[in-house]
Amino acid sequence: MVDDHPIVLSGVGAMIEGQDDMTIVGLAANADEALVGIGRVLPDIAVVDISLPGINGVTLIERLVERFPELRCIALTAHEDPGCLRQVLAAGARGFVVKRSTATDLLQAIRCVSSGHNYVDPALAARLLNPRHSVQSDPGNLSDRERSVIQLVALGYSNKEISSRLNLSIKTIETYRTRATDKLELRSRAAIVRFAQSNGWLAELQ
């Protein structure tokens, strides 16, 4: 856990430590401490505040991802800025959580990212699915439903979770997903994420 506010650092650290499936292995107040500590203990997850003194959190995430390819980073920030989301995704973060979110949201983000998925704060995810924020020209000539499903897949949601969010059956979601990936010739979740990023689906939120 990396944050320059002692209260946040100790509070969030204690919350995480209280979970049966999580353990805090280090706390850092700045990027230099984080680089040294993470290099020493090699954690699975790093929760990084974006507004750090000196080297900021986005730059820190870039360096962590470069030095420790197996490490998965979650950005934690007070700023609900789509531009910030763009930056942290480009830096290699696997999760984005705003500080006003509930403790449950952060824990969900950690578990989601730990399972190999991406996580974006629900408020920003909802804005991404707002039609006025959608990309107007879609390679592959996707339908609106196919595009929505692929967007949610790129954000790390399972077919069951997408089914619940879109109020459609899991079988219908699977059909939309298969049609979309066939049209776009995408054979893996990683390819879907790269496609979504390159076409602005995870960035064009303004």
Annotate the secondary structure layout.
Elements: H1 6-17, H2 31-41, E1 45-49, H3 57-67, E2 72-77, H4 82-91, E3 95-98, H5 103-114, E4 119-120, H6 122-128, H7 144-154, H8 159-166, H9 170-184, H10 189-198
Strand order of the largest sheet: 1-2-3-4
Largest sheet: 4 strands, parallel
The SSE string, one letter per element, is: HHEHEHEHEHHHHH
Give the overall pLDDT as a whole number. 84
- The tally of beta strands, per DSSP, is 4
State the separation between the terminal residues, measured CA to CA.
29 Å
Give the amount of beta strand, in percent: 5-15%
Structural class comes to alpha/beta
Shape: elongated
The proportion of residues forming helix, as a percent range, comes to 40-55%
Which regions contain 5 or more consecutive residues with pLDDT less than 50? 131-138
| Rg over alpha carbons | 17 Å
Number of helices: 10
Can you offer a commentary on this structure?
The structure is a single chain. Helix 7 packs across helix 9 (170-184). Helix 3 links the parallel strand 1 (45-49) and strand 2 (72-77). The chain has 206 residues and is α/β, with parallel strands linked by helices. A 4-stranded parallel sheet has the order 1-2-3-4. The chain has helices at 6-17, 31-41, 57-67, 82-91, 103-114, 122-128, 144-154, 159-166, 170-184, 189-198; strands spanning 45-49, 72-77, 95-98, 119-120. It is built from 10 helices and 4 strands. The protein is 52% helix and 8% strand.
